[in-house]
Amino acid sequence: MVVTGRKEAGKLLNQVAVRGLSKAYRRRILFKDISLIIPDRSVFVLLGPNGAGKTTFLRIICGLIPATSGQIEIIINGQVLSPREKRTQIGLVSPDLALYGELSAVENLEFFAEVRGIPFSLARARELLHFVGLQGREHDLLDTYSSGMKQRMKYACALLHQPHILILDEPTTNLDESGVALVDKIIKQQKQQGIVIIATNEPREVAYGDQTFTLA
């Protein structure tokens, strides 16, 4: 397996370390024996055709599903995080991320704060919703949102707890030009303070990467 991009420079205090990672479903092998380091303050882009296992790879990083073999270590301040600690350091935007249409934007953020075990702040919720372009719609039910607005809402949920690692699966899905510009801004800001991991096949999104890896 070949990784392109920056090489690891010594022992990094903050990084995602993938060690011998494999995933198979019965006799079907999605990927096998992947080892790589994603350093702090970088953007890692995962490529590959549909069905190659990009979303599965991201789910394993998030701890949502187990690997068949190997492991992923999330290291913050030189310490390997426990599965529970990972939840406080990862933000996820994915087509599979469930939002609740019967709740308002503010209520969704309150729910996700409770799930993550962090205090809910109405001021922080309003700040986030303004940042992602949903000001004025804070108390509307998500069932009334367009697909692009729901994608913006996913970013608000992912950024709620100020994660060190932001994981984006098809990050600009359903977004218009202003939404794509928002994603540009989010990725640039996150790179300055942590790690961004993107799964995509879109050339524009590939250009974000400091490091790329292709699943065959």
Give the end-to-end Cα distance, rounded to a whole number of Å. Answer: 10 Å
Number of helices: 7
Query: Strands of the largest sheet, in order across it?
Result: 1-10-4-9-8-7
Query: What's the shape?
Result: globular
- The portion of residues forming beta strands comes to 25-35%
Q: How would you classify the helix and strand content by structural class?
A: alpha/beta
Radius of gyration: 17 Å
Q: Main beta sheet: strand number and arrangement?
A: 6 strands, mixed
Low-confidence stretches: 1-11
**Total count of strands:** 10
Mean pLDDT: 92
> What percentage of residues falls in helices of 4 or more residues?
25-40%
SSE string, helices as H and strands as E: EEEEHEEHEHHHEHEHE
Descriptive overview:
It is a single chain. The chain is of the alpha/beta class and 216 residues long. 32% of the residues lie in helices and 27% in strands. The protein contains 7 helices and 10 strands. It has helices spanning 54-62, 83-86, 105-116, 122-131, 147-159, 177-193, 203-206; strands at residues 4-5, 15-25, 28-39, 42-47, 69-76, 79-80, 90-93, 165-169, 195-199, 211-214. The strands form 2 sheets. It has a 6-stranded mixed beta sheet, sandwiched between helices. The chain has a 4-stranded antiparallel beta sheet with strand order 3-2-5-6, with helices on one face. Helix 6 (177-193) links the parallel strand 8 (165-169) and strand 9. Helix 3 crosses helix 4. The chain is globular. Residues 1-11 have low confidence and may be disordered.
